[in-house]
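Methods, example record. To illustrate the input and output format used throughout this study, we show the complete record for Solute-binding protein family 3/N-terminal domain-containing protein. The sequence lines were provided to the predictor; the line carrying structure tokens was produced by it.
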Amino acid sequence: MPAGQVSRVEPVAEIAELVPDTIRKRGVLRVATMTKYQPFAFVVDGKNVGMIPEMVTAVAQTMGLKADIHGMDFPSILLGLQAQKYDIGMGEFFVRKDRVDVADFVTEWSNFDAFVVNKGSKYLPESIADVCGHKIAILAGSSGVPAMETGKERCAQAGKAAPQVSVFPQMADAVLALSSNRADAVLTGREVGLTLVASGQPFVPTGRVGGGPCATAVARNADSAKLAQAIQAAYVYLIKSGKYEEIHKRWGTDYGAINNPTIYRQGDALPDYKI
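The corresponding predicted structure is encoded as:
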């Protein structure tokens, strides 16, 4: 894994002016993100590392702020934003109606899910149609949840046995279920399987499920409209400056790079994530 952080990003005056007064005066952007989820966000020697901590640090610096990063279980991120404990949340947030009902979003990346199976397994699922009758592990609150609901429906329509779905609060727990043969496969973001393999673990990534833009969640309050605009402007600046690409390449997530960060709010037409 890469060591350290990318070089500091200097504040951009016109972007800093977009930051709401309450946050600018505080000088800190409070960030909620995942933990134990390589290569996105995890802890090494007590420090938050990964693509997300590096990206949000660059975003905050562009706005003239310091990023105060808090790691937690994925389902807790939006709950923390709703409780106004954090300003933004970063993870693999597909922009869904249930999420837009409670927060605003700014797209910053794109991803799709894939299966991870044990090396040597004869079960090599290629799509959601292949989950029938199998034990599938997923991360709570992730895109795997609606994907497996769709899988159950399609298995029923085909007259096949339903998949046995196990939901875990952290990806490390889902991976443990796979390695101990309590699950036939883990359904997760594509890069998670690639990272597991690169780290020497005896797994194989296979197939593709769904996909589309992922987004930064913005706590909904009196500041959310301005903060979403500042976040969007920061992403655009980082893309144009090359820092965005630099960070993604360091973590092997550049395959999902985008060039058009978009704001989504309640009532907007949302991306179509076909499974």
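Annotations derived from this record:
Residues 19 and 227 are 6 Å apart (CA to CA).
The mean pLDDT is 94.
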